[in-house]
């Protein structure tokens, strides 16, 4: 798996948000995307996944050597990138089981495929709630379901947009543990997060987005954790 983002400019009808974003993600890497509120984390992950708005105005996104800059979100999903959207977006009027069963799956993959049973092994709590309507699940259970739905596509790159948002600390521990559990399964992960401590615990590498609409710093998570000037400058911590 390799993702290469080069010179990406992205915006909305009303405003240009990203002004030349460059980064790469390699095989088996967990990368955190950090930045203060409104810097463009969601804009960047939506652009990579082919979700519109926003619109990519220049630059390119290449995934496993294929230019996906102009591809639709469905095409990108079929190539192996899956997103856990901000706000979870599960189907409230379907059961847990139905939410997982309706996902189109990529079949031509190396390694173990995801099945509903495997998701229930991975998140036992979802197995217990498989006949419940998704709208009746707690926030944490909905987040597990959103991750389960993304895994069902059999991605090689999983992108999560603020997985910690609105979750209680005990649930965060579960989500953190499960994201750790994905390591070594051949999956690479990009996590956009406001919760810097959590992100630094989970990630091998960090990219920071700032008000220039680009990536002023990237490096190892432990480097950032130990650099109070960087934390203050870009994340106001
Ligand atoms: N649909 C939209 N139309 C116009 N502008 C938008 C739209 N969505 C986001 N923006 C603007 O784009 C900029 C970046 O927003 P974005 O949501 O990508 O930031 P973020 O880093 O993910 O922030 P947060 O952590 O608050 O979600 C903000 O100025 C926001 O107001």
Automatic annotation (TrEMBL):
CDD domains, per database record = ABC_TM1139_LivF_branched
Pfam entry (one): ABC_tran
Q: Which UniProt keywords apply?
A: Amino-acid transport, ATP-binding, Nucleotide-binding, Transport
Q: Which InterPro entries match?
A: AAA+_ATPase, ABC_transporter-like_ATP-bd, ABC_transporter-like_CS, BCAA_Transport_ATP-bd_LivF, P-loop_NTPase
Protein's UniProt keywords contain Transport: yes
**Residue stretches making up the ABC transporter domain:** 3-237
Q: Do the record's keywords include Thylakoid?
A: no
Q: Which GO terms describe its biological process?
A: L-amino acid transport
Q: Which GO terms describe its molecular function?
A: ATP binding; ATP hydrolysis activity; branched-chain amino acid transmembrane transporter activity
The family this protein is said to belong to: Belongs to the ABC transporter superfamily.
What protein name does the entry list? Branched-chain amino acid transport system ATP-binding protein
Q: What is the lineage of its organism?
A: Bacteria, Bacillati, Actinomycetota, Actinomycetes, Micrococcales
């Amino acid at each position: 798996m390799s993702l290469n983002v080069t010179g990406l400019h992205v915006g909305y009808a009303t405003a240009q948000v990203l002004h030349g974003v460059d980064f790469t993600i390699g095989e088996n890497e967990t990368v955190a995307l950090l930045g203060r509120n409104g810097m463009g984390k969601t804009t960047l992950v939506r652009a990579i996944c082919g979700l519109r708005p926003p619109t990519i105005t220049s630059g390119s996104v290449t995934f496993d050597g294929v230019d996906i800059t102009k591809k639709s979100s469905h095409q990108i999903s079929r190539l192996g990138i899956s997103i856990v959207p901000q706000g979870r977006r599960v189907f409230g009027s379907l059961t847990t089981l139905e939410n997982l069963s309706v996902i189109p799956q990529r079949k031509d993959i190396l390694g173990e495929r995801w099945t509903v049973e495997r998701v229930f092994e991975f998140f036992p709590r979802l197995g217990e709630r498989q006949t419940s309507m998704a709208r009746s699940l707690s926030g944490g259970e909905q987040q597990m379901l959103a991750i389960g739905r993304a895994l069902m596509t059999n991605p090689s790159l999983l992108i999560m947009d603020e997985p910690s948002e609105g979750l209680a600390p005990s649930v965060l521990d579960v989500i953190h543990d499960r994201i750790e559990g994905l390591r070594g399964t051949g999956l690479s992960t990009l996590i956009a997060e406001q919760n810097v401590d959590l992100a630094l615990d989970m990630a091998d590498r960090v990219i920071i987005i700032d008000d220039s609409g680009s990536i002023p710093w990237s490096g190892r998570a432990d480097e950032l954790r130990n650099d109070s000037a960087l934390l203050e400058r870009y994340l106001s911590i």
